Amino acid sequence: SRTVTTQSFLDAKQNRRKIAMLTAYDYAMAKIVDGSGIDAVLVGDSLGMVVQGHDSTLEVTMDDMAYHCACVARGLQHALLVCDMPFLSCHVGLEEAVRNAGRLVQQSKADAVKLEGGIGMADTVKAIVRAQIPVMGHIGLTPQSVRLIGGYKVQGKDEAKARGLIEDALALEDAGVFSIVLEAVPEGLAKIITEKVSVPTIGIGAGRYCDGQVLVVHDLLGMYDAFVPKFVKQYAHLGGLIAEAVSAYARDVREGRFPEQKHTFSAGESFLEKLY
Ligand code: KIV
Ligand code: NA
Q1: Residue 268 Cα to ligand 1 middle (Å)
Q2: One short Pfam family name for this protein (predicted)?
Q3: Could you tell me the pTM of the whole model?
Q4: How confident is residue 227, by pLDDT bands cut at 50, 70 and 90?
Q5: Ligand 1 pocket test: which of 214, 217, 233 has the largest number of ligand atoms within 8 Å of its C-beta?
Q6: I want to staple 51 with a disulfide (CB 3.0 to 4.6 A). Which of 47, 92, 145, 244 is the partner?
Q7: Nearest to 186 by CA among 119, 118, 234, 140
C-alpha cells in the first residue's frame, strides 16, 4: 500500500502543511511524478480533453477511467491515488454508484474516488463511504455540468451562490469526504470555505488559501495549449521541446545521420557475404 493515506491529508491540514496534487494518466508519467515526491495523483476525467482530444469531459466512460487508473497505479509507490468518477457513473442510483466506485478500487487500485457535486450528491457520497471507499468532493466549477452551466466560468460570484457553495462544502464534510476540490472560485470565498471545513480543500483556480493545490500535468508541463486558463502556471514548455526533438529526429533520418553504427546490431559479417 502507498505511503500517503487519506489520514495524511487530514494530518496535513491539522499541521498546516500544504498538499501538492497533480494529475497523471499513464504509467511513465505516474512514475516520474511519484518519484518527485508529490502527495497525491489524480486520474482526472480531464483525460477526455488532454489525452483523448475531446472538447469536454462528458465523453469519458467508466472503462476509460478504469484503464487509465490501472496504468497509473502501476507507477505509484508513494502518492495517494484518487480516481475521478466520470459523467453519469454515479447518478443512476446509489447501487450503480457504489459498484462503479468499487471497481476503481478493486480492479484499478485507486485509493479513493472523486465525484463532482455538493448537497445533491451527499447521499451518493455517504453510500460510497459506507462501502469503505474514501471520497474526495469537487465543487465550484464542475466541468461535467458544462451543458447546464453553459460554459467554463468562475463560480460563487454573488452572495447567494457563495452561500450555496459554503452549504455544499459543509454537506460534503457531513457526508464523510476526506477532502474537497474547489475549482474556479474567488480566492476570498475559497478562504472562507477552507476555514469552515475540517477536511483539506484542494484548489484549482481557487487562490492562495486552500490547504492544497491540484493542476493538470499537461498544463504544468506546457504540453496542452488548446486552452490555457488564467490559474495555470506552466513550469516548463515541453510542447516546444518535444517538437524540436521530433523535427531533429526527422531531419536526421532524412539526411542519413540516424541511425549511426552504435545504434545497430551485427551478426558475424563472414556468413552474410554468402547471402549476396
Ligand atoms: O479532471 C481533473 O483533472 C480534475 C482536476 C482539475 C481537479 O478534476
Ligand atoms: Na475531473
Answers
A1: 55
A2: Pantoate_transf
A3: 0.97
A4: confident
A5: 214
A6: 47
A7: 140
